[in-house]
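The following record pairs a protein chain with its ligand, zinc ion.
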Amino acid sequence: MKHGEKSIDLGSRKLVAMRDVQDALAAGATSIETAANCVVTPSARDFLQQHGIELVMDKAADASAPAASDDYASAPAAVKSQAAVNRRLFTTPEAEEIKKEICSVGRKLWMRQFVDGNGGNISYRIGPNEVLCTPTLVSKYDLTPEDISLTDLEGNQIAGSKPRTSELLLHLEIYKSVPEAKAVVHCHPPHATAYAITGRVPPNMIIPEFEVFVGKVAISPYETPGTKAFAETVLPYVREHNTVLLSNHGIVCWADTVTHAEWYAEVLETYCWTLMLATQLGVPISTISEQHGSDLLAIKKKLGLPDIRFDTSRMKECQLSDLEVPGSIALEPTPCDGNNSNGGNGGADLESLVKAVTDAVMERLENRE
Ligand SMILES: [Zn+2]
């Protein structure tokens, strides 16, 4: 240990709460060590983070560590073997490969200017109850495999020396709600985020790749990042959308691999950017015909990707969006992409949306005469 560093051993504790971390700070700790299966309360985690105290949760994983604590020694065999399984997952060849993939995807996000400062986060569900994720307060450009942590589905850190991202709850809600989701990427790409700060969604059937890989993008209402309320904002949409705009914040994508989740972020960002460029050409944007559109949806279904338009009973409410204002590249979200009656986007309710659609159609008819 370097000069000036002080580690406090809480390896015998099953639970570490606010009082314990306040005591550790008062005692001059620069890090605290706990058993891998110890529960650290969210407020205690926040406190440690605010005061720059490192949380090391691999005590029982360290073979050279002193004999296991009394609590750990007396823990039921099932708990101990589960903790050992969890810790083993963290260093398997598969985990090591995924840690490298997370780092390379992090670098892509930074190189493409999808993240800034220490923004954005990446995770992968490596076991039924285990998730590898990026740490808090590290630029995605600088990530190394040693920075990646392992947590359970409740956000408790199982292994890894750096505290996990504070945005993990968002990822965990998606994993709990969508069994097919194995990887989640959250970032702030500027053109897609421009939509997210206006509460609007892009129109559909303009570029094939967008229809196949993303399709209809949903928008979730604003909540304070890092909170459970924020994490839950995406729940109504993530089963039928692999990409969601987060109002006044950024985007989140899920996929079968970390690489694919980042691809969807790229596809959405490029689409939003291209639409903005096209509007500067001063001529109408042409759309893909209904027949060709059905071909794209058939390809998408074959690839096993989700799309709310596969649910024919919701087709009508989805289509409303594309009729709203002819030629518009920023549409009011419909109920199927985020404008529900209790949503907080400041968007119109269904009734006023129907009126807007009717007005637009009437205007179009009048212009034909
Ligand atoms: Zn963010």
